[in-house]
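User: Quick sanity check before I run a bigger batch. Here is a single chain. Can you write out its predicted 3D structure?
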Amino acid sequence: VNIEDNSIPGGAKIKVHQINAQLKKLNQSLSNKQPYALSFNLESSQQNSVEGELVAMPFSLSSAIKLSAIPINIIQPYLDQLANISIKKGDLSVNGNSTISIDKNSELKGMFGGDIDVNDFDSRDALVKQRLLGWQKLSVSPINVSLFPLAIDIKKIDLNKPYSRLVINEQRQINFSQLLKANQHSEKTEKPPTEFKIDIAEVNIKDGSSYFADLSLRPQFGTSIQNMNGAIKGLSS
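Assistant: Done. Predicted structure follows.
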């Protein structure tokens, strides 16, 4: 399947290949559990799979999800509409289980539990053509997400060899704040985003590096920081 999205400037193309699907135990009963399995490759990814059981009424869908090395830069055409950030490389892997169902009160319920890894990530500041943010490995394990209402609980985040470039310009603005593109279509009457709960028990940083500069000072100041190690515990919204 070749997907082409021309709703955004420049368009976006995604190739899904080596698709295999299976659905079992089909019959006229809407309450029957129907095992299903789907596998596919997304661009240059390894084989991804989703399998579980589907019930039509009352609706429920349980899935075991395995995504393997999906290239993150496939979102670049969409990111270009939002921010001046260029993704050079990086891949996403997910291994977990999810459920979505409608209860007797017709309310939608859902959850996801598992591990998420983002490996070999690197990005650039498209305004100044400089490296912005990157890391060798980002591991989130385990993460539990409850939907409707949204709540996220993370036991541990391990960040290996991270890099960041932080610059304060002469107007005392941080470079990250300049990366988001202005939304000319936003309405003043737009409703505020729904609050959600997030808890992160532990964040570990290993062998990090950074570049920091403050151009608002006279004389201007800049320095590289190496061999950063540390931990943050008990983060919460």
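The chain has a mean pLDDT of 92.

User: Great, the batch can go ahead then.
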